[in-house]
UniProtKB/TrEMBL annotation:
Keywords: Oxidoreductase. Belongs to the nitroreductase family. Residues 31-75, 90-173 form the Nitroreductase domain. This is Nitroreductase. GO terms for molecular function: oxidoreductase activity.
Amino acid sequence: MTLTDSDTDTAPRPAFDRAASTSAPILATLAERWSPRSFDAAKPIDETVLTAALEAARWAPSAANSQPARFIVARRGTPEFDTVASSLLGFNSVWAGSAAVLIVAVAEVVDAEGKPRRWAEYDLGQAMAHLSVQAHHDGLHVHQMGGFHVAALTEAFSLPAALVPLTITALGHLAPADALPDDALRARETAPRTRLPLAALLLTNV
C-alpha cells in the first residue's frame, strides 16, 4: 500500500501552525513533525502503516551493522498495552493511553559474546528517529517519552540484562487539543515550538 498526499491530508490538523522555522529549507516531513499528546482513542491503527514505521526503524544505520534496536509493540486493547501504559509516570500516564500503539524502544547493550555495545543507545535513537519520520510522513503522530518505571517494565516482559528499555513511544492519529483532560496538558499542546538557534549548537563551523 502506498500513501499519497491526499491520503494523509485527511488527518486532523491543529488550528495553529506547527511547522518549524528554519534558517534553510528542510524536508516538509521533518519541518512539520511534532509531538502531540492528544490522540484519537477511537481510531485504529493501519497495520500497513505501522509496519512501514517499524521497517524504517529496521533499516536505520547502526555501528558495524550491529542492529541493537529491539521493540515491544503493544496495540491498544491488549494486556501488553495496559502493562506498558501502567509503567508511565507523571503527565505521561494521563494522556498516552489514548494512543493506538505504545512502543518500548529497547537497546541490546551487550553482544552475543558478552562484549559491551558502546553505541547501542545511539543506534536505537537513530532507529526511533527513522520510525517517527516515516510515521509522520504516513499521517500518524509520535510522542516519545522517558518517564516510566524501567524496572517494572523489564520484569513484566522478562527482559534479560543485555536488553535495556530506554523510551516509550505513543503512536496514533491526532485528536484536537481540547480532547485532553487537563488544562495544563492543553496548554502544552498549543504552546509554540521552540529550539535553540542553530549557531548555539555549532561548537565549530569553519
